[in-house]
Amino acid sequence: MDANDNQSVKVAAVQMCSGSDRDANLATAGSLLARAAGEGARVAVLPENFAMMARHDAERRAIAEADGAGVIQEFLARTAQDLKLWIVAGTIPIHAPEDGRLAAACVVYDDKGARVARYDKIHLFDVDVPGPAESYRESAYMRPGASIVVLDTPAGRLGLSVCYDMRFPELYRALQAEGAQWFSIPSAFTVPTGRAHWETLLRARAIENLCYVVASGQCGTHPNGRATWGHSLIADYWGAVSAEIAEGEGVVSAPIDLAAQAETRRKFPALQHRVL
Asked: Does domain 8-273 have CATH number 3.60.110.10?
């Protein structure tokens, strides 16, 4: 069935507090994905770095996989097939042999366990967070992606993005121009920036593109000492938050109603009024 034939489909955002034990993280992810499927979700979004919040680059490299093979990717394919659930798999570290760094790859599996898309995070988090002594240089160990990815899913046409991407509205304009009806934004947002900007940015990306947003986050304090914001949420095309979990691991789900979205886009044709 074409994605557009299904007018209302439930999707889920999974919130985790991943540690440095890959297998324990995968077990937690599997349990939460099963909960999402049990709530009737057809598509579930895992957070960024769901398989490990690494304490240092050596740990990250130890679990990095070749494209298309490895423990994490096999887990995702098997879980998607077993649960009959589409999985948007946050990010996993994939070897980029030509560069020496890793790719932060968001991979998507359909409900038969087949991989149907891969998006490499384009915008890397190279910042000094104002206020606290927090400094990040993702480009030191991650290679940025260069291509946008949009694909058809049971819940409509999906534009892929990751965390820091949400600060760059031109990315979402490009995704919408390719027909995106909803955006997935798996994240591991810092507490200071999350408190200041998380919900505002997510709702803005929804409103300006008349798109649904499904943002799954890391939460709590991790073994590497980093504290993440959580507050995973689903926002509709009008910017209203329809489901949210503030703290702790869990699942939130809500329907994507393509018919209602299409009607609103018809009556409120802001996307057709763009000039620049």
From this structure: yes
pLDDT tens-digit series, residues 82-130: 999 999 999 999 999 888 999 999 999 999 999 999 999 999 999 999 8
CA distance 239 to 205: 8
Minimal CA–CA distance to 101: which of 116, 121, 117, 118?
121
Could you give the count of Cα atoms lying within 13 Å of 273 in the half-sphere of its Cβ? Answer: 9
Q: Are strands 126-129 and 134-137 parallel, antiparallel or unpaired?
A: antiparallel
What letter does residue 164 receive in the DSSP assignment?
Answer: G
User: Which of 17, 106, 163, 219 is the catalytic position?
Assistant: 163
Rounded to whole angstroms, how far apart are CA atoms 21 and 51?
8
Q: Under a CB-based contact definition with an 8 Å cutoff, are residues 246 and 230 in contact? A: yes
This prediction has a pTM of: 0.96
Determine the Cα–Cα distance for residues 156 and 258; give it in Å rounded to an integer: 7
Residue ranges of alpha helices (H) inside 43-190 are 57-63, 71-83, 169-177
To the nearest 10 degrees (0 to 180), the angle between helices 22-38 and 71-83 is 20
| 121 among known catalytic residues | yes
Which pLDDT tens digit goes with each residue over 164-207?
999 999 999 999 999 999 999 999 999 999 999 999 999 999 99
Task: List the catalytic residue out of 17, 48, 138, 199.
Answer: 48
Q: Which of 121, 199, 219, 249 is catalytic?
A: 121
For residue 39, the tally of other CB atoms under 10 A from its CB is: 14
Q: Where are the domains of the chain?
A: 8-273
> What's the rounded Cα separation, in Å, for the pair 271 and 179?
11
Whether pLDDT at 6 is above 80: no
